[in-house]
Amino acid sequence: MKKTFSLALLLGLAACGQQQEGKPVTVIEFGENGETVTKTDAPPPTATVAAESACEKVKFEGVVLTHCIADPAKDTIRMALGPDGGAPYRSFSKLSAAVSGDSVVFAVNGGMFDGAGKPIGYYVEGGERLKELNTNDGEGNFHMKPNGVFYGSGGEWRLRTAESFLANVADRPQFGTQSGPMLLIDGKLHPEITDDGPSKQIRNGVGIDRKGRAHFVISDGPISFGKLARFFRDVADTPNALYLDGNVSALWDPASGRMDGLVPIGPMIVVERKK
Fold first, then answer.
1. Which residues pair with 30 in a beta bridge?
2. What residues form DSSP beta bridges with 55?
3. 83, 96, 192, 178: which is closest to 129 by C-alpha?
4. H/E element, 205
5. What is the pLDDT of residues 230-258, one digit of tens each?
6. Which of 120, 205, 219, 252 has the greatest number of C-beta atoms within 10 Å?
7. Mind giving me the DSSP string for 9-68?
C-alpha cells in the first residue's frame, strides 16, 4: 500500500473527546496516489504541555483514527477495574481520582463487560485472576471466534487467540483481558471479517508489533472491522490484533487533555511511565 503524509490542524473533531485548545495536532494521512503534500497551518503554541502525547491523529482510507503507542522500554501496562473491594470505576474521571501523580501516559477501555461493568472474559489485574477464560459459544462480537487475550508481565506483552492462550500459557500473567473478535491472526484478517463490511461504529483495538510495542487505535468516526484490521496490518504492522469494543470505545490522554466519558465503561487498560 502506498502512503501519503500531510500535516493539518484538526479542531473540534466529531470524536469521543476534544483536543487541548491551542495545541496543533499532527495528522498522518495514508492514501492511494503516492503523492506527498505537506501543509503547515498551525498557530504558535499558546500553552506548555507537561508531557508529549503518545497518541497522534492519523487518517486511514477516509477515517480519522487516534493511534497511541506503548513502548516496553519506558512504559508499563496494567488493568484497572475498580478500587479493592469496590464497584467498578466505570469512567476515567473516577480512575483519575484514584491514581497518584502524573504517571498515566494514556488509558483505554479494555474488553467487553456485563451490565455491572465487570469483565465477561478472562481478566487478571495485579497478578490476581478475577475471571477465568471464557470459551463459551454465543452471540455478539465477543463470541465471534476466534476471540483473544491481551496479556503480559513486565515488559513482555502478548496477544493470542483464546484457544492458543489456553493451550500454551501456564503461568498467570501480571495483567490480562479477553475480548473479541481477533482482528488479525498471524497477519491475516479474521475469517469472518470482510474488507469493509456494512457494520460501522466507533471502535478500538490493540495490536503488538514486531518490536514488542503495543499499538492502541480508536476511531474518531464509524469504521468497519475490516478497515480497522487493515490499519493494524498495513500501518501499525502488528501481525496480531484484538478488537476491544465498539460504541463505548474511549480514550484518556492526559497530555492532550482528552478524557472521553460519554457512556459507562468496564475494564481499563492503563499505560504508565516507568519509575
1. 60
2. 68
3. 178
4. strand 203-208
5. 999 999 999 999 999 998 999 999 999 99
6. 205
7. ---S-SSSS-PPTT----EEEE-SS---------PPP-S--SS--SEEEEEETTEEEEEE
